[in-house]
Specification:
The structure is a single chain. The strands form three sheets. The protein has a six-stranded parallel beta sheet with strand order 1-11-8-7-5-6. Strands 3-2-4 form a three-stranded parallel beta sheet, sandwiched between helices. α6 crosses α10. β5, α7 and β6 form a beta-alpha-beta unit. It is of the alpha/beta class. It folds into two domains: about 80 residues, Leucine Dehydrogenase, chain A, domain 1 (Rossmann fold), CATH 3.40.50; about 130 residues, NAD(P)-binding Rossmann-like Domain (Rossmann fold, 3-Layer(aba) Sandwich), CATH 3.40.50.720. It binds guanine. Guanine binds next to β4. The site of guanine has 7 residues, from β4. One of its GO terms (cellular component) is cytosol. Keywords: Amino-acid biosynthesis, Histidine biosynthesis, Hydrolase, Methionine biosynthesis, Multifunctional enzyme, NADP, One-carbon metabolism, Oxidoreductase, Purine biosynthesis. Pathway: One-carbon metabolism; tetrahydrofolate interconversion.
């Protein structure tokens, strides 16, 4: 049996259509346009490509968007001043500082400097705390994308055994918190596995919903998965380049094996990836509404 594909590209398109309507509505009601600035420090090719995709999405939705690229040797002070400038700019609703930052810059300090009402990544401790108590203004983008995929694919999360592989601040921890909350698209029993977990397959084999954000190419094998489980693969691992220079991506799940066992699975690329950017756009629209309501 081959699993049904959860197509993030299609779900993402549908949400962006909804957002377009919302942007139109905001323009008519408040006379404003959601504004997003992306700050990219340095010239890392992967970061450049992510930021380009974010800018394109913002542009396509009719946002006011600013791409602010800075050299890798910008000082921490200069970067903090720049953030302060955008904190005060009424045209800007969302500030995104692309990570990772060069080593001489303290990432935590930078994330703390962003006005929490413009923190569309939801990385500021204020927003992390609000998420933890079940009162988020913004959901972190990749976990929000995963939850949307589950809900829009009709996956029952209430009472489900969810196993998350990975404990990062960006994906593992927040998706675990979100799915254990009370409410629709949640109410799950969540287990989080990580590099020190004693017997990871004991846990993965029990999962009704298996979410893998391990950062290791094809880490999860087909026989780690319970037959009929829903598999969400958050991995984005570049394993090579095509003759014309395009990145060849693989997930954290051995897809060909997993699709024979799972009932539903996200492909890589075209699964979780496109959802992350769409959720960033959703957060920017939300920030605009918060600022103008
Ligand atoms: N680098 C990798 N993923 C992300 C993300 O979601 N947001 C930001 N700002 N940087 C990233």
């Amino acid at each position: 049996m081959a699993a049904q594909l959860i197509k993030g590209t299609e779900v993402s398109k549908a949400i962006r259509e909804e957002l377009k309507q919302e942007v139109q509505h905001i323009k008519e009601k408040y006379g404003v346009t959601p504004g997003l600035v992306t700050i990219l420090v340095g010239e890392d090719p992967a970061s450049q490509s992510y930021v380009r995709a974010k800018q394109k999405a913002a542009h396509d939705l009719g946002f006011y968007s600013v791409q602010d690229d800075r050299p890798a040797d910008i000082s921490e002070d200069e970067l903090l001043k720049l953030i302060d400038q955008y904190n005060k700019d009424p045209k800007i609703d969302g500030i995104l500082v692309q990570l990772p930052l060069p080593k001489h810059i303290n990432e935590t300090k930078v994330l703390y400097a962003i006005d929490p009402s413009k923190d569309v990544d939801a990385f500021h401790p204020f927003n992390v705390g609000k998420l933890m108590i079940g009162e988020p203004d913004f959901l972190p983008c990749t976990p929000a994308g995963i939850q949307e995929l589950l809900v829009r694919s009709g996956v029952e999360t209430s009472g489900a055994e969810v196993v998350v592989v990975g404990r990062s601040n960006i994906v593992g921890k927040p998706i675990a918190v979100m799915l254990m909350q009370k409410g629709p698209g949640a109410n799950a029993t969540v287990t989080v596995c990580h590099t020190r977990t004693r017997d990871v397959t004991f846990h993965t084999k029990r999962a009704d919903i298996l979410i893998v954000a391990a950062g290791v190419t094809e880490y999860v094998k087909g026989d780690w998965i319970k037959p009929g489980a829903v598999v969400i693969d958050v991995g984005v691992n570049e394993v090579g380049r095509t003759a014309d220079g395009k990145r060849i991506l693989k997930g954290d799940v051995a897809f060909d094996e997993a699709k024979e066992v799972a009932s539903m699975i996200t492909p890589v690329p075209g699964g979780v990836g496109p959802m992350t950017i769409t959720m960033l756009m959703k957060n920017t629209v939300r920030a605009c509404k918060i600022h103008h309501n």
